[in-house]
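In this section we walk through a basic example: taking a raw amino acid sequence and producing a predicted 3D structure, encoded as C-alpha cells. The instruction is simple. Fold the sequence below.
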Amino acid sequence: MSPAAGLRILVVDDNPDVARTFSEVLSAEGHFVDIADTSGAALPLIETGVYAVVLTDMRMPDLDGPALYREVFARCPPLAKSFLFITGDSFSNDARRFLSETGAVCLTKPCTLDEIESAIERIAVQRHGRAQERVTTS
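The resulting C-alpha cell sequence is shown next.
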C-alpha cells in the first residue's frame, strides 16, 4: 500500500478502459477513486467532492486537460494545484507552455505505478505540506 494511501482521487479520461485501469490500480493502492468520462462530467464532481488529486488526460474531446484546469482554477483555485496530467502524446509548444506556466505535474504514458504514486504524493505534499484529505472510513 502506498504511503499516500487513503486519498480521494478523481480520474478524468474519455477512454473508459484507461479510466478503469487507473481506478483499479489506484484503488488497489488504497485510494478512493471516482471516474468522469469527460471534463464536463468532472466539473459537478469537483464542485461537490473533495479531491486530493485530479488525474486527467491532456487531450479530450469536450474540454481538454488544460481547459479543465482553467475552469477549475476559476471556480476553486486551490484545487487547480492538485492536477496530475497524463498523456500519451508528444507535447506541443502550447502544452509545454501551459505546463511551464502552471507548474502542473505531468507524466507521459507509459508510466509506472511508482511514478504515479510519487506524483500523487508530491501533489499532496505541495498542496497541503503533508498528505491531508485522506478519506476516513468509520
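Looking at the output, two observations stand out. DSSP finds six helices and five strands in the chain. The mean pLDDT is 85. In the next section we compare this with other chains.
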